Structure formats: structure tokens, C-alpha cells
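Long-time lurker. I teach an intro course on protein structure, and each term I like to show students one example going from raw sequence to a predicted 3D structure in C-alpha cell notation. This year I'd like something fresh instead of my usual example. Would anyone be willing to generate the C-alpha cells for the chain below so I can use it in lecture? Attribution to the forum is fine with me.
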Amino acid sequence: MANYELMVILNPEAGEESLNASIDGIKKLLSDAGAKVVNENVWGDKKLAYKIKWSETGHYILWTLELDGKAIKGMNSPFNLDVNIWRYMFVNLDA
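-- Reply from a regular --
Happy to contribute to a lecture. Here you go:
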């Protein structure tokens, strides 16, 4: 198990109910992949460096995880299919 950070930018205009559903979906994917969530840091709405879908803000969440790196590949499709997830990135902290 390696240490990773997962940064996710969500659509801030999706509404609280829709955002919570996307966040719960992410948490379920992580638990199904055997990830141990060490820390969850909700940054909330922040100004983006560049516009995404004509929006100047995004809803940021940062997770610190213990995760087998091979499990990340299986999470790409569900992340890409969720319309509220605008961007996401896994960073290996051990590298």
C-alpha cells in the first residue's frame, strides 16, 4: 500500500444534493478499491486558474489515502462518467 493524494474538482453549481451524491460515489469507489482514507479536507468553492465549462469557480476536495496503485486504473471510468466531477488527479506521495 502506497500513500496517495486525490484532488477532485466538482461542479459548484450542481446543488448540494447532487454534490453529496457524487462525493458519496467517490467514497464508495475508494472503499471498494480497498483504500484507507487517512484525511479528507473539503476546501469548498475556490477560484479556478482557468475556466472549466464557463465557470470561474470549482468545489475542491482533497483526500489523503493509503491505496494499492493498481486500483487507480479501475476508478478512471466511473470518475469520467460522473458529470459533476470536472477534474481529478491522483498523486503518489511516496515517489
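Some talking points for your students: The first helix runs from residue 16 to 32. Strands lie at 2-10, 36-52, 55-67, 85-92.
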